[in-house]
Amino acid sequence: MGRTAKVYLVGAGPGDPDLLTRRAERVLREAGAVIYDRLVSAEVLALTNPAAILIYAGKRQGQQDEIQADIFAWILNLKGRVDSIVRLKSGDPMVFGRGGEELEFLAQHGIEAEVVPGLSSALAAPALAGIPLTYRGVAASFAVLAGHRQSLTTLDWSIYRGVDTLVVLMGVEHRDVIAHALMKQGRPATQPVAFIEHASTDRERIVESTLGEVARHGVEVESPAVFIIGEVVRVRTRASLRYSEQVAE
């Protein structure tokens, strides 16, 4: 029986290669093949083994199942040709990245696998923007949810009524629908929100607004962006003001 490659499900983090784990960088440098997602940055890809086979597996709306089937086929095709295959996903491979499905597939085919966790943009983007997801006396809970079309039709929005801070991934396109749904469940139109575009990269931009303004289509945002809803957004403004005052002194 011939050799079978080991597959690594690797989290590429939010984009800045400095935010990769040491394990992720080491695995990339030794990879025989890398199957990478659309949001993986060029800077992270630059760290891969120069001799590795690179395969783009970017998914767009309506293509998810088709591309996922291709990914499985590529793995089966490559497993006897290289020593290791890296399945490189933006953020963390087990957060809205179909990492669980891919682990099941690998197990079914007797392929050795290892998960290399990554820094999810759900945690990294707010932190980089100076927005704490929890804050004493302001927010004691947070939830992360997907904002794409499929989730919008299946989510029970009432369960998020009592969650202090919400972090929405893949929610730019339907941000007005999300805002309406949350306001219908009792969140005030004045509640602050923030969008963090291209977190950790040189294209990062932070847009602050209110839930009501988002519902009225009043906020222009570019994807990919992390959508944060909650009173903790005000902490960023207060911290910025305090820092500016200290600098002025």
Description of the molecule:
By secondary structure, this protein is of the alpha/beta class. It folds into 2 domains: 6-119, Tetrapyrrole methylase, N-terminal domain (Cobalt-precorrin-4 Transmethylase, domain 1), CATH 3.40.1010; 122-239, Methyltransferase, Cobalt-precorrin-4 Transmethylase, Domain 2 (2-Layer Sandwich), CATH 3.30.950.10. The chain is built from 9 helices and 10 strands. It has helices at 22-30, 42-45, 64-78, 99-108, 121-128, 149-154, 175-184, 211-215, 233-248, and strands at residues 6-11, 33-36, 53-56, 84-89, 113-116, 142-146, 165-169, 192-197, 205-210, 225-229. A 5-stranded parallel beta sheet has the order 3-2-4-1-5, with helices on both faces. A 5-stranded mixed beta sheet has the order 6-7-10-8-9. The chain is elongated, with a radius of gyration of 20 Å.
Fold topology:
Elements: E1 6-11, H1 22-30, E2 33-36, H2 42-45, E3 53-56, H3 64-78, E4 84-89, H4 99-108, E5 113-116, H5 121-128, E6 142-146, H6 149-154, E7 165-169, H7 175-184, E8 192-197, E9 205-210, H8 211-215, E10 225-229, H9 233-248
Parallel strand pairs: 1-4, 1-5, 2-3, 2-4, 6-7
Antiparallel strand pairs: 7-10, 8-9, 8-10
